[in-house]
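Translate structure to sequence.
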């Protein structure tokens, strides 16, 4: 721990925390759960952002047709059940009885269909599914079918995956909103209701138990099964300073902390009232993403110079510090996952600044300013950003470093055209999303409107991805996966910067946490 961090820790622990309403050392009561989220929530419309905090928000308020269990297998959620025709061209879904939106209106087939269409306009994997659908047949308020043009083996996985953007079910009138404009009424049918009147961006997000929610009957399993809300109120308190957050958790003013900085773990471990554990089934992955719609990163030679510059160990040391929590990985699809492959990564397995400098000089880059954006609100991003800016300067880039709030950063990177507002940034994503080519939107090379703003465009890589998705035999899938990975290392849609486990911390008064690809708060109990 740095001297400044120790000083902040001492100060925060000794002082009454500004903005927290509870009495130090006392819990707010068994019906209120107070959480320090990993980031500030700025995007409320779940179809507009793949940010982890927005996906967590969406999972509380909305439901999806299908979802993942603890082993990342697909299970029904809003669908009570579904059938597949013998020719695998018709998927017929029956919705759960009694589902109501938070305004009291029933969830109907036409709400689901409209929501799927809107989501498909924004999500790359959803767009692939949309291209396979010949028609939607609404048979009744609770029964509808998808008719395909040809068999497509990824229908269930796509509808249930916790990928870049979740296929959350909205009211039909909300789902008819332009996919590029935000829905303003956050009304879902999930186990929590969003309390819009108490939302304070940068400070507080409030959810209440949905008294009309009827859980599934199966036992909880990951995001699948029964979603039983054991609390009356869930509060996300945004505390950007990590030392203040640690003091609040130790004092009992907060109950749960999502994504704890590694250097504060020793401090938390000294408290007998705090539990530290890992909850995500796969590690998080550091990513370096470049705006490929503008110079200089529209030039693949410049992207390759950056890739040669990256030392994953240095990036991970800056992100999390303790080697026990990180490891290098040059797979686009997560080391330790079923899709791990290192094919094509050999030229970039070892960082070499001298060679990267020569590659940049030969690329045609002429010294124009390169805007590096980042935030200190998420410590892994802040640490990686510092290394990224320094190393880029070392090999000859004219770096314009702009640090900002996380909410501003997500807003900047979602607007097109970017008008020079960003060229490159470091971030991280969950292994649950990135381990599968279908849902790894950062690695998607689709040319057109469904690609990420500033994302890669490469028809060959897209064709290889299509080939992979068409395979059904394990050996053929492995060959296709290796071919895709090799092409991605030639194109470089982004640069893997290593992978790390995220520690979570909570008071011993809480129980019921289990590994899930999104951190959620149903089935969690709080004792006095």
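Result:
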């Amino acid at each position: 721990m740095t001297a400044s961090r120790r000083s902040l820790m001492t100060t925060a622990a000794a002082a009454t925390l500004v903005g927290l309403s509870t009495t130090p050392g006392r819990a707010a009561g068994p019906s209120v759960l107070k959480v320090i989220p990993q980031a500030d929530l700025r995007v409320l419309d779940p179809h507009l952002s793949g940010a982890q905090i927005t996906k967590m928000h969406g999972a509380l308020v909305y439901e999806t047709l299908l979802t993942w269990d603890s082993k990342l297998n697909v299970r029904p959620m809003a669908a009570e059940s579904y059938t597949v025709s013998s020719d695998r061209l018709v998927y017929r879904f029956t919705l759960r009885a009694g589902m109501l939106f938070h305004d009291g209106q029933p969830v109907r087939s036409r709400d689901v269909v409209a929501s799927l269409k809107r989501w498909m306009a924004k999500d790359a994997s959803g767009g692939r599914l949309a291209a396979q659908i010949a028609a939607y047949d609404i048979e009744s308020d609770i029964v509808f079918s998808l008719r395909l043009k040809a068999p497509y083996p990824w229908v269930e996985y796509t509808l249930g995956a916790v990928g870049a953007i979740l296929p959350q079910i909205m009211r039909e009138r909300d789902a008819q909103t332009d996919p590029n404009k935000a829905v303003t009424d956050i009304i879902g049918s999930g186990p929590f209701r969003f309390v819009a009147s108490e939302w304070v961006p940068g400070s507080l997000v409030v959810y209440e138990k949905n008294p009309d929610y009827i859980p599934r009957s199966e036992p909880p399993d990951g995001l699948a099964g029964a979603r039983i809300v054991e609390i009356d109120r869930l509060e996300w308190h945004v505390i950007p300073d990590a030392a203040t957050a640690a003091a609040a958790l130790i004092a009992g003013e907060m109950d749960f902390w999502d994504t704890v900085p590694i250097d504060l773990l020793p401090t938390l471990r000294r408290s007998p009232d705090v539990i530290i554990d890992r909850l995500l089934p796969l590690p998080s992955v550091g990513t370096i993403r470049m705006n490929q719609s503008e110079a200089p990163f529209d030039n693949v030679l410049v992207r390759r110079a950056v890739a040669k510059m990256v030392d994953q160990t240095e990036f991970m040391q800056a992100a999390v510090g303790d080697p026990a929590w990180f490891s290098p990985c040059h797979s686009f699809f997560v080391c330790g996952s079923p899709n791990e492959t290192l094919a094509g990564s050999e030229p970039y397995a070892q960082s070499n600044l001298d060679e990267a400098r020569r590659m940049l000089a030969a690329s045609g880059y002429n010294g124009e300013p390169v805007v590096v954006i980042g935030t200190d609100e998420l410590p892994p991003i802040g640490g990686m950003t510092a290394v990224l800016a320094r190393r880029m300067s070392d090999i000859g880039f004219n770096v314009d470093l702009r640090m900002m709030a996380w909410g501003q950063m997500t807003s900047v990177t979602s607007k097109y055209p970017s008008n020079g507002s960003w060229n490159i940034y470091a971030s991280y994503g969950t292994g649950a999303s990135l381990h599968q080519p279908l849902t790894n939107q950062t690695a998607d090379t689709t040319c057109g409107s469904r690609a990420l703003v500033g994302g890669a465009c490469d028809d060959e890589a897209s064709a290889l991805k299509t080939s992979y998705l068409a395979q059904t035999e394990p050996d053929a899938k492995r060959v296709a996966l290796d071919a895709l990975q090799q092409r991605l290392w030639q194109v470089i849609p982004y640069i893997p910067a290593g992978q790390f486990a995220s520690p979570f911390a909570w008071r011993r008064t809480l129980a019921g946490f289990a590994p899930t690809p999104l951190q959620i708060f149903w089935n969690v109990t709080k004792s006095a």
